[in-house]
Write the structure tokens for this entry.
Amino acid sequence: MQKRRNLARRIGKGLLILVGVLFVGAACAHLAWKYSGDDTPKLVIDKQGIQVYTIKTPGQSLLKIKAVRVVKSTLDRAAAAHLDGSLENCHDWIPDCYESVAVKHWDPQARNYVQLWKEKFPEPFSPREFLLNTQFTQAAPGQPITVEFTAAPDAAPKSDCCYRLTHMHAVWTLDPIDQDDVRVTLMQDIDVGLPYFLFNDEAPRAVYGAFEDLPRLYAKTKYDTVSLQTIYGGQPIVAE
């Protein structure tokens, strides 16, 4: 009986040591990953005219994502698609989007608006709230357009329903090549509240899927009558 107790103690002590070693190893691996990187884009997907890059910044665990493709579309249509805050458009871009509310309506002078989107996340994660300031910039007619989405978590009262993002900076650049082709570039820096190893694995594929869908998203008939002139004139594209 005494021998069995001694054996059990040795096994228990060995397991504790093993757990400690694994914990220290995991912590070291995490720190090594967090402080690695050099901010250089690394090509991870290159197919069907779409290039997706990951960018590792020292001191950050989450990857930034860059993506590029040329879309056969007009600059007017591309701009309209990125400024359309309707629930229909949100659902087309993100099938799990289920609510879109204008917090600050489109301001044609400042060329911005604030919108609240809600998106379902798979169990066990709660739904996400994207409360974003959208800033539209174009230096001159015919020049590239940037549409910049920045988290504005304090722009509206919080709700118990969801996890509200506090860190997001996504910049879409729409660069006209000619009248019927636009080079689209995305630079994305976002924290959706997932463990970094899950996010880093999924984010490049998610961005690729969105870029694969851009021709359809830009080609909606609702944008037939939208132009940069009507946008600048104050025509509301975003949800009212």
Observations:
- The chain is about 30% helix and 35% strand.
- The chain has two domains: 1-34, 36-232.
